[in-house]
Write a structure and sequence with these properties.
Blueprint: H1 2-19, E1 33-38, E2 46-49, E3 55-58, E4 62-65, H2 71-84, E5 93-99, E6 104-109, E7 115-118, E8 123-124, H3 125-131, E9 142-146, E10 153-157, H4 162-165, E11 171-172, E12 177-180, E13 185-190, E14 196-199, H5 209-215, E15 228-234, E16 237-243, H6 245-249, E17 263-266, H7 270-274, H8 279-287, E18 291-292
Amino acid sequence: MRNASKWIFLFLLAASRLAAQAPESLLIGPGDMLHVQVFDTAELEQHARVTDAGEISMLLGGSVKVSALTPAEAARAIEKVLLDGHYMLQPRVLVAVEEYATQKVSVLGEVKNPGAVTIGTPRSVLDVLALAGGITDMADRKILIERRNSKDRIPYFVSNKPDAAFDTAFQIYPGDTLFVPRAGVVYVLGDVAHPGGYTMTNNEGKISVLELVARAGGTNNSAVPSHTRLIRKEGDKYIEIALPLSAMQKGNRTDMPLQPDDIVYVPFSYLRNFATMSAGGVAASATSAAIYQF
């Protein structure tokens, strides 16, 4: 029976070392409960909770810093303490997290059910978003993830391409925080079929002038696309930029990418509307425009 226990210990030890070679592993944090085993030394086996200082108190060797380490890295840190203190010649240690201080992930922003979701193991971004009800129609696919231990903030793009969306290489851990911002909105006003605001929710999170006009159903027959203007906010002021929409539609000019809150104004008649509709007036109209989520 004792030999069987040794083989099980060695198997688990080898598995933990292999896991440590993965690109990312769940990190130990304050409040976690650890199970520490030392090969062939049952009297050193213990269950220890990580202190607020990120340490555990060993039966031999004193306190060991384990916070922000993977279980395999913590095992090596304990081995070093036992070796440097001349307590053992060839210590082999196995560390497992029995209980996490928090098993919740905070999912905030543009998700259907914002709040805390419970996970006991690392999960993919898609899984965690699904637990929060999924992203809303207004969500930006460029989300931000804050790691529990390091407080590092990592940008992540939630693709709607299946191969990328189901990639599980990037993991969310208990205690992490996800923030899903609202997508940018651009406006098209004037003589188009469906004037209003349109979210930048395609797979790239970008939209161009021609794409925006196409979403709005195109220009009407009475429009003067050659005198289209782009109204863009810079600081506290609005600036006007001549937009050769007619030439873009004919392929004579390159399409232009838009920025969030840009306003494209297509005049009904150059003589009747263009001269009287100021940048401020166009911007004021945009504030009451309906938002289209497609």
